[in-house]
Specification:
It contains ten helices and seven strands. The protein is α/β, with parallel strands linked by helices. The longest helix is centred in the middle third of the chain and has 25 residues, at 76-100. The chain is globular, with a radius of gyration of 17 Å.
Length: 205
């Protein structure tokens, strides 16, 4: 089974690309969705201990947590040390299930895939990208998003040029959804013949 990393900076169109993979019958693990699930209860107590005042009603209040992290960006690593091992565990379970079902390809949709050095854990990397102007417009249109939050997130992500350079495949989402879908379809045909080694090396056990 070929393991594919789908990544890209905030507002670049990962969800649109992931939807096309799913529409083509390919399983996609959504790391953001898993974080939301963990914040809703399983990791709330641990995060509250590390970041007092970040939880409300037994769940992480993302706004309160963001405020603390914006004020002290160096603490992102503390949060990652709590969250990343649990997300990685969920990724492993997802890939093992996909492999057991005989999937030819499985996709891990992870925003900071390259930033945390996960390149070697997949057989191919797909990076979604768009112009800086399109990115800013998309992100600032989100509910609760501010310039400060946007800048804090971007500061933690690799420059676009570096992401594109490290990608095996690049998807430009600046245009229509149909354009994105067409690019994904072409990529799928190019993924199928690739050698699959990452699962056996990193995920089976």
């Amino acid at each position: 089974m070929l393991v594919v990393g789908l990544t890209g900076s905030i507002g670049m169109g990962k969800s649109t690309a992931a939807a096309r993979f799913r529409a083509r019958g390919i399983g996609v693990f959504d790391a953001d969705a898993e974080v939301h699930r963990l914040y809703a209860g399983p990791l709330a107590d641990e995060i509250e201990k590390a970041f007092p005042g970040s939880c409300t009603g037994g769940a992480v209040d993302r706004t309160k947590l963001s405020e603390q992290l914006i004020a002290a960006p160096h603490r992102f690593k503390e949060l990652e040390a709590i969250v990343h091992p649990r997300v990685h565990e969920a990724e492993r379970h997802f890939l093992q299930a996909e492999n057991a079902h005989g999937a030819a390809i499985a996709v891990l949709e992870v925003p900071l895939f390259l930033e945390v050095g996960r390149d070697a854990h997949v057989d191919a990397i797909v990076v979604v990208t768009a112009s800086a102007e399109v990115q800013r417009q998309r992100v600032l249109a989100r509910a609760g998003m501010t310039e400060a939050k946007f800048e804090a997130v971007v500061a933690r992500q690799l420059p676009e040029a570096e992401k594109r350079a490290r990608a095996d495949f690049v998807v430009d989402t600046s245009g229509s959804v149909e354009s994105c879908n067409s690019q994904i379809d072409i990529i799928i045909t190019r993924l199928l013949p690739l050698s699959a080694t990452a699962y056996e090396q990193f995920w089976r056990a």
